[in-house]
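Weekend entry, working from home. Most of the wet-lab plans are on hold until the incubator is repaired, so I used the time to fold the two sequences that have been sitting in the queue since the last round of cloning. Logging both here for the record. First:
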Amino acid sequence: VNVRSDALPGRAFTGAVESIDDSAQFTPRDVQTAEDRGDLVFGVKVRVHDPDRALRGGTTVAVGW
């Protein structure tokens, strides 16, 4: 995956998905349609290749394919 953070503009990191939670962390009250399923949130753990340790723990990042 590609990893970017507003805290480090212009830098991009690569990473690999290590795990995806089996159950949703956030579930709307009613999940009845395909659109509602888009609101489900699952925890994902990504191991980021960052040999310089530029990213700090707790940094918000955007992850894409």
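Second, folded right after the first finished:
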Amino acid sequence: HELDWVVWDGSTESLAAHKKILEPTGSPIASLDSIDVVLVPALAIDPDGYRLGQGGGYYDRALPLLRAHKHGVVYSYERMEHDLPREPWDIAMDSW
């Protein structure tokens, strides 16, 4: 399964529960080149911007397709002081 990229208007009414998270709903974006910024959820991020996700591989497959700025979203205590395990397909976040 692939990620569907949609524009989120910021309202809670346009979110739907999927597994453990709320996801924006709507029509998929036709051109990924129109995406400027992606907020990428993470369980942890290391000093080089590499993230630990939920293990589904959705972002591992989707992020290489984007030229958008990738911002990892974590709580301050999820910023690690040491490197996380990395695989060749992992993508570092541009900011976090």
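Plan for Monday: verify the second prediction. The helical segments are 58-62.
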